[in-house]
Batch of 3 targets.
Target 1
Amino acid sequence: MIAMDDLRKQFTTGRGRKARSVVAVDGLTLHAQDGAITGLLGPNGAGKTTSLRMLVGLVTPDSGTIRVDGVDLRTDPQGVRARLGVLSDARGLYPRLTARENIVYHGRLHGVADDVAQARCEHLARLLEMQPLLDRRTDGFSQGERMKTALARALVHDPDNIVLDEPTNGLDVVATRALREALRVLRDETGKCIVFSTHIMQEVQRLCDRVVVVAHGRHVADGTVQSLCEQAGCTDFEDAFVKLAFDAEGHAQ
Amino acid sequence: MSHWQAMWTVFVKELKDALRDRRTLMAVFVSSIAMGPLMLVALSTLVGKFEKRAEAREIVAIGLDAAPTLRNYIERQTFTIKRAPADWEAQLKDSKLGDPVVIVPADFEDALAHGQAPRVQLVYSSANQRAQGGVAVIGRLLQGFDQEQASLRLVARGVAPGVMSVSRIDEHDIADTAARAAQMTGVVPIFVLMAVLYGSVNAAMDTTAGERERGSLEPLLATPASRGAIVVGKWGAAFALGLLIAVLSCMSFLPAQSLLRSESLSAMFRFGWAEAAWFITVLAPFAAALSALMMAVAIRCKTVKEAQANNVVLTMAVSLTPMIGLFNQEGESPWNLWVPPLAQSALMNRVLKNVPISPLDFAPGVVVCSAVTALALVFVTRQLTRRGAQ
C-alpha cells in the first residue's frame, strides 16, 4: 500500500534577483490500495512525475509524508525503494548489455540472488512476450522493446508496489494492449498495489479501479471513473476530467 | 543487500560494459600501449644517428686544399674530408646538411708559415639539431691542431711545451649508465601517466554523465543500493581500467627494449620486471585519485560531451605537471613528492635512474592521492544524493 499525504515541493531556478520559484506539488494526497490500480491523472505539468519521484526518494519533499507498506521514506528510504518497482520517466537501458543483463543487474541490486533473478527474468519475458529479445543487446531496440525491457527491469524483484510513470508513451496499440493485460494479471493474480500516472483518458477508463485527478500540483478529485463523472455532472469521462482539472487550474491561478 | 554486494554488482557490470566498448578500448590500447615503445624506438633511432655521425669522423670543409698542414693533421686524426656543397649555407639552415662547415681562408698556409694566427671559421646553425651535435667534435679537432702547432713552435725555440700548461684537467662523470639514460628516457613516465588517464577517462565519464545522458541513472537510483556503494562500484571499474592500461603500458616497454637501435641507449636503458613493478606500485594511487576526480568533474554534467569539455583542465594538468620536473634545471625539490602527478613522475624517474626509493619518498604521493580519492568520492556520493538523477 502506498500513502502520500499533503506533499509539497517547490523548485527554485536561478540565483539572486533572477531566482524564480515554481510550485510543482502543492498538498497532494494519494492513497493506493493493494490489489488495485490507482491512476494519477492530470494535464502536462500537473506535478505527476515530481510526485512519483518524491515517492522513490529521488526528490526530497518540502513537507508531507510518504509511506509504503507502513515504512516511512524519511526514516528508511532504502526500505521503501526495496518495496517499490518503478518504471520512471527516464527509461534508459545499457546499450552494450543484453536485455537479460539489464534486467538481472537491477534484480541483483535489489538483493535478489542471481539464479532467482534469472528465473524472474524468464517469467517476466513470458508475461511481456519478449523472450526473443532477452539475449540481444539493447542497442537498436525499438521504443516498444525498450519499454518492455524497462518494465521487466522494474518488476524483476517481484515488488508488492508498482509505480509506472506514463508507461504507454511511445507504444503502439498492440504493445499498449499487452501492457494493459500484464498489469491486470499483476493486480488480479498477485494482488499488487499499482500506481500509474497518465494523461490518456482511455487508459484510465479501461484499467484504473480508482483515479486521483491532479492539477497545478494539487489533488482536485478522486474516486472511480463513474463517481468522477457524477461529481463533474458529465456523462463523458474526458469532459469530466477537463471540468475537474482545468476548472481547478483556473481557480488556482 | 549489503554494501559490499551492491559495490561488487555495480563494479562487475561497469567493467563488463566498458570492456564491451571495443572501439574505444582499441583506440585506448593503441594510443597507450603502442605510443610509449614507439616513442622509445624513435628516440633510440635519433640517438643512433648521432652515434653514427660521431663514429663517421667526417669533416665538411671549404678551402682545405690551400691548407696542406691542416689537411695533413686532419687526415692523421683519421677524419675523412668532404667538400661542402655549393649551397651549403642554405642546406645548413634547412637542416639538410648534418655537419658544421669549416671555412679555411686562402692565405691560411702563408699566414701559418709567418707565425700569424690565421682565422678558421666553424659555421653551424643552432636551429639545426643534427649539425649542432658535430660542433664540439670538430671544435676539439681544430683545437688539437692549434695545440700541436703551438707545441712545435715552442720545441723549435727550445722551450718545453709543458710550460704552457700550468694545470691539468681530468674529467670524471659520476653519473652511472642508468642516470645518463634517464636524460634521454625522462619522457617515459609522462607517457605512462597519460596511459592511466586514457584508461580510466571513458569509464569515469560513461558511468556518471553517460548514465545521466541515457536516462539510466534514475532507475539505478530507484534501487535500494546505497549511493555510496553505487559510487564506489563505479569508481572501482574506472580505477581498474586505468590501472589495467597502466600495467599494459609498462609491460609494453619490456619487449620494446629489443627494438632499440642505439647500442649505448639499449645498454643504458634497463627496464626489467622490477622496474615495471615499481612503476605500477607508484601509479596505482594516482590511478585511484585520477578516476575519482574525473567522476567528480563528470557527475555535475548532463552529457558526456559536457563532461569531456570539463575534463580538459584535468587532462592538461596531468600532461603538463610532470613537465615541471622535466624542465627544472635545479633538480628535484621536496615539495615535488607532494604534488600528483609530479610526485609519480619524479619517483618513476628515480626508478629509471636506479636511485633507491625509501618509504618516506613514496608516502606523500600515497597520502595525497588517498585524500583526493576519498574527497572526490564523497563529493560524487553527495551529488547523487542531493541532485538525484537531475
Target 2
Amino acid sequence: MTSFPLPLTELMGHWGSYVVYALIGIAFGMTLESAGFGNSKLLAAQFYFKDMRVFKVMFTAIIVAMTLIFLSTSIGLLDYNLIWVPPTYLWPGIVGGLIMGVGFIIGGFCPGTSLVGFATGKVDAIFFVMGVLTGIYIFGETINTYAVFFDSSYMGRFTIPELFNVSYGSVVLGIVVAALLIFIMAQKVEAAVNKQPIKPFPGWSKPAAGALIAMAVAALLIGQPDNDDRWQSIAAENQAKLDGRLVQIAPAELLNLMNDSKLKIVPLDVRKEQYYNQFHLQGAVHVPLECVLDKAEEFQFELANTVFVIMSNDEVEATEAWKILKAESVPNVYILEGGINNWLDTYASESFTNDNKIRLRELDQLAYRFDAATGSRHPAAEPNPNVLDLNYEPKVILELKRAPVTGGCG
Amino acid sequence: MSNQSRAKPYMNPYLAGTLLGIVLFLAYFITGSGLGASGGLNRLLVFVQNAVNPEHIDQVPYLLKMAGGSTNPLDSWIVFLTVGTIFGGFFSGLLGRRVKFETNKGPQINNATRWIMAFIGGGLMGYGARLARGCTSGQAMSGGAVLSVGSWAFMFAVFVGAYALAYFFRKFWN
C-alpha cells in the first residue's frame, strides 16, 4: 500500500541491497561509539547507578524510533505489516535475557557494544568478542539437546497494544511520557549516588521532548490504518488488475502449479463450511471469508515461494478475500478463475456434471449437487495433471517477498 | 596520558540516543529490518566452521540452516550490517581520537582478571543472545521500538539479570 519499506532487492539486486545494510551498520557503529559504548567501565556504571548512560541512550533511541515509526504508519507512509517485529518466544527470551544480564555485569559489554570496543582497540572488548563467538559456538552444539524449550511459548508476531487491547497510539504516547519521567528521575539518582548537584538536561532537549510528545499525540489521533483504509490506498492500481483479469488464474494453471515442486501452493478455500464439506480441492486450506483478515498475519510468515490461490463457488467471495489479503500486503495472491464451479466444469467427469447440475442458483452458490459430504475424496479434488492438456494463459509471476523473514539478529 | 587527554569526550547520552533512534528508524523505514549484532557474529563463526569442518555443519540442524549445501553463511544482510558497525565504530573512534589499545576495568583488579571476566561474560552473552533470538540491539532495542511483547519481556530480563548480580561484582568495577 505504501512505498516504504523499500523493496531493496528489487531496486538494487541481491548484493546491491547489502550496500544499504553496510551503510546503516556504519551509522549504527558511529552512534554507539560516540555514545561511549566502546568503554566497558561506562557501560557497567549503569548497574551501580553512577552513570545511567546505557539506560538513557537505549530508551531515547527506542522512543525516538518508535514515535517516528508509528507516525509514519499512521499517515500511510510506512507499512507496519512489512517491518520485522521479532516474534515472541516468551520463556526462551526471558531465560536468554537473564543469562545475558549476568554476562553483561561480568563481561561489561553486550554484543553490539563489544564490536565498537573491538574496533577502537579496547583489549577487554577483544576478549569479550572471542567469548561471544565461543558462546555462540557452544549454543550451536548444544541446542539440539533442548530444542523443545527453544521453540516453546511461541506467540507469533505479538505486540503490546494487542496484549492490552488498546490502540498503538496510546501505547506509544504512554511509553514516551513514561520514559521522559524516568529520565528526570535518572538525573536525580545519578546526582544522589555521585553526591553531586543534578546535571541539567541540554538546552535542546525540552523542545525535542515536546516534539516527540506532539508526534505521539498525532499518531494517536490519526490512528493506524485498518484493512479498509489500506485497501483504499491501493484500490486504484489493484481494481485495475481485477478488472483486467490479471489475477484470476485458470483451473489448469492452478493444477500445474500444484504439481510444481519449486512452489508452495496454498489453495485457500473461503467458502462456508457446508460447501467445503461437500467438495474441496485436495490440500485446500479452509478459511471462511470472515476469518481471512485474522489469518493475514500468519500468511506473512510463509516462505517466499508461497502462492495463495483463493477460491469460492464463483468469484464473489474470493474477490473480497483477495482484496483483504492484498491490502494486508500478503505477496503472491491469486483467484481461481470461475471458482470451484469452473473447476468442476473442467475436471469433474461428464457423467457427474450432467447428472448433478443445479439449474437455478444464485451467484457464488455451488453449481453442482453432492449427495454426501465428499470433501476431497471426490475424483475431481485431485485430477491427474497429465490426462487433460488444457491451454491457458499463465498469469502467476512470483513477486519478491518484501516482508523480512529474518530481522533483528538475523 | 597525553594521548588520553586529547581524546574527545563522549557525546551527551540523550543526543547519542536521539541519533541512534533516527538510525534505527531509518533502518526500519528503508529496509523493514531493525538493527542487530549477534546474528552477524553467528554467521561469521559458522563461515569459519564450514570452512574447517563442513561435514559437521550437515549434522547440526541449527547450523544447517545457515550453511547447508551451497548456502553461503555470509550471504545475509546482517553480516553486512555487522561489518559496517565495526567500521563505523572505528571511524567514530578516529574522529574522537579514542582509538587506543587499552583495557577498561575497575581499579581493584589487574588486566588478566579483566580479560578472563570479559571472555566469560562474552560467552554468556553469546549463548544467551542465541537462546533469546537476539541481543540488546536486535531484540531489546529494535523489537522494543516496534512494540513486540517478547522484546520488552527480554529487555526487563536483561536488566533484572544484571542488577541482581551487580552487588556481587562491585569489586570488579569500582
Target 3
Amino acid sequence: MCTVGGPVDIDLPPERVQGKDYRCKECGERFKGVGKKPICPSCQSDDVALA
Amino acid sequence: MIHTLDDEFLLIKGKQSFLLAALVKNNFGLCVETAQDEYVQGVEAGDLVVVSAPEGGAIVPALMLIDLVRTFHIPLLVLPKNHPGSKRISYVVSVSPEIFTSCSIRRGTHPDQHVICSSDELAGINLKRSEHGVDISPLPGGIIPRKIKYEIKTDFF
C-alpha cells in the first residue's frame, strides 16, 4: 500500500517547486508561474511576461 | 503502449486500487495552492489529468474529480508535509504532460504534478501524453485498461 502515515517518503520538498513571477499583458494579473507555457489564471491568456 | 482517447476516460484497475486518466480539453492556468504560496501551471490541451485511488473505491468520484479539474479548472490544494489529513484523502489528482506513479510519497502533500501517489500494485507506471491519447508503460501483467464514457447531465424542471 501507499506509505500514507508511514515513515517512508521520497524527497520531494515543496520548496522544489520554484515559480517565476509573471504579469499578464491582457488583464494585469500578477502570478507565480511554473512550467514551460505560463497562462494567466484570471483571464487564461498566454500573453504574459516576466515581472 | 499507446491508448487513443478523445473525451473518454481510461481506467487502469488493479486488484485493490485504480488509476483514471483523461486528456485536458483546452489550455488553462492550473492554480496549485500550497500553505506557503500559489503557483500557476500552464496546462495545454492534450496534457493528462490522472486520478489515483490508492485504496480503490467508487469510480464516480474520480470521474467527477477529473471533470472538476479539466472542465471547471478548480485549484489543486496541497497539504503541508506530515499533515494529519493526508491519510483521509482517498483520491489524488495530477495534471501534467507526463505523470509517474509512486507508492513512496504521502498523499496530497506534493505540489509536483509529474508524480502521483499510487498503491504498490500500480507503482512505477509512466503515463505520457501522445498524439490523440496516452502512452502507458510499463503496464503490470494482467491489467487491461478500459475506456469509460461519462457525462454529467442536469435536467431542470
